[in-house]
Design brief:
Elements: H1 2-27, E1 42-51, E2 57-62, E3 66-71, E4 76-85, E5 94-100, E6 103-109, E7 120-127, E8 131-139, E9 144-158, E10 163-177, E11 182-196, E12 201-215, E13 220-223, E14 226-233, E15 238-242, E16 249-253, E17 258-262, E18 269-275, E19 280-282, E20 288-292, E21 296-301, E22 306-312, E23 317-321
Parallel strand pairs: 2-6, 2-8, 3-7, 3-9, 8-9, 9-10, 10-11, 11-12, 12-13, 12-14, 13-15, 14-16, 15-17, 16-22, 17-23, 18-22, 19-23
Antiparallel strand pairs: 1-4, 4-7, 5-6, 18-21, 20-21
Length: 322
């Protein structure tokens, strides 16, 4: 019994010693971990105002900050960099504001040798209300939020952060997230192109002539909109929740399910489904079948003017209600 008590106290001692050692290591200024942002930081707040005159194209290129672009209330472009950073970098970090003819490039000047992966900064950009020729936002490891923006061309790219768009109007909108999620709401564009290598794509309340998407290992959900749709998901599910299907739709999935839910009964829809190891399910009555097998369904409602084409390697297909 005495030996058990002794061993228990020895175990508690080892745990306590480990906790003390970790705390010392993280706070020691002489050790590498001592420079990490969360433990010894100073707040920064840098602001710039840029005259709007002549600026038609905007490029925000940030290495490792979150970027938030919104519509402001003044006729100036306002840029603010805020957050917390190691005190030794406070006097060496600054906003980059570079006018180039009718273009304006915004970014962050970082000191040489700085580990930008340890930054905890936000860049907020307030834009005057106008129709831009182009708006491009790119960040390597930060999140991007873009709202209340109009432009001929809108291009957003993030290597390892999430992307959110809302209240955006454009002739063309191109969104690319390498390892983050994409979420869009209330977006109007003649052409919408979406890419997500390992994150989810979620689009709600959209209006477009054509929407194209490519997803790697994430799921895709499109709801509350109308567009010609063409998309592919390698290992995720594809889900459409629409009032009705009024334009041609072409969907392809590798190892995921494809579900198309409509609130209204199809009036003029041709269905062409072919699957590998999955099954097809049609929940709406009234289809005139040309072929109806477990993994092949061909048929139409009405005259079949709108085409729905679905190809799946190893998932199920459902044409459902509501």
């Amino acid at each position: 019994m005495g030996r058990r008590i002794l061993m228990r106290w020895f175990g508690l001692f080892l745990i306590a010693a480990g906790v003390i050692w970790i705390a010392f290591s993280f706070n020691s200024a002489n050790l590498a971990w001592g420079n990490m942002i969360p433990f010894n930081t100073k707040e920064i707040n840098i602001e710039r105002e840029v005259p709007m005159s002549g600026v038609q194209n905007l490029l925000v290129d940030s290495v490792s900050t979150n970027v938030n672009v919104i519509q402001g209330s003044s006729n100036q472009i306002k840029v603010r960099l805020s957050g917390r950073i190691s005190p030794k970098y406070v006097d060496t970090i600054d906003l980059k504001v570079a006018p180039q003819g009718d273009a304006l490039k915004l970014g962050v000047n970082l000191p040489d040798g700085m580990n930008w992966g340890l930054l905890n900064l936000d860049m907020n950009v307030e834009l005057p209300e106008k129709l831009w020729k182009s708006v491009k936002v790119e960040t390597k490891s930060g999140d991007v939020k873009l709202a209340q923006t109009k432009g001929d061309s809108i291009d957003v790219k993030s290597s390892s952060g999430d992307i959110q768009l809302s209240q955006v109007q454009a002739k063309s909108a191109t969104i690319h997230a390498a390892s983050g999620n994409v979420k869009m709401k209330n977006v109007e564009s003649n052409q919408i192109t979406l890419q997500a290598s390992s994150g989810n794509l979620v689009v709600d309340d959209f209006k477009s002539d054509e929407l194209a998407f490519t997803a790697g290992s994430g799921n895709v959900k499109l709801s509350g909109g109308q567009s010609k749709i063409k998309g592919e998901a390698s290992t995720g599910d594809i889900q459409l929740e629409l009032n009705s299907l009024l334009q041609d739709t072409d969907l392809k999935a590798g190892s995921g399910n494809v579900t198309v839910h409509m609130e209204k009964e199809p009036q003029s829809l041709a269905v062409d489904y072919r699957g590998g190891s999955g099954k097809g399910h049609i929940q709406w009555n009234g289809m005139k079948y040309e072929e109806n097998a477990e993994n092949v369904i061909r048929g139409s409602y009405g005259s079949g003017e709108v085409k729905l084409k679905v190809r799946i390697s190893s998932g199920d297909f459902t044409l459902g209600k509501g």
